[in-house]
Amino acid sequence: MTNNSTRLDHVVLWVADPVAAAGFYERSVGLEPLRVAEFAAGEAPFPSVRVNEESILDLAPLSSAERTRMLPGSADSAGHPVNHVCLSLPAGAFDALRARLREHGVPVSDIGHDSFGARGEARRNFYFRDPDGNVLEARHYGE
């Protein structure tokens, strides 16, 4: 990938309790939390979790929706359904995530096969929800 190619930087998820959401994504999904202490201290508007070296999920407090003013009507996006966010993992990490979610009591869907995505057909995939109802998909493409 080159520096002038388009990349996904972040996705903002509305959550009721950003600290609890960061804990879920750390413990159950295995993502690194960012700025949680700063958020708790009132020094950052929201915490995040790192998906990879280039992408994060921002965990925006639903209570701040009415103050969202980047575009007219932005506050109305709170509660608007995004169908799901998909995490692409190597096969071993895919299996480890599914096991970790079950270990933490997070319901997961059945395993699907040959689902189309950014890199073509994924060999396996499954879905789960975070505590705020956001739907995530996990998938892997190769061995």
TrEMBL record:
GO terms for molecular function: dioxygenase activity. Coiled coil: none annotated. It holds the Pfam family Glyoxalase. PROSITE patterns: VOC. InterPro entries: Glyas_Bleomycin-R_OHBP_Dase, Glyas_Fos-R_dOase_dom, GlyoxalaseI/FosfomycinResist, VOC_core. Signal peptide: none annotated. Keywords: Dioxygenase, Oxidoreductase. Residues 7-141 form the VOC domain. This is Dioxygenase. The keyword Ligase does not apply. The keyword Oxidoreductase applies.
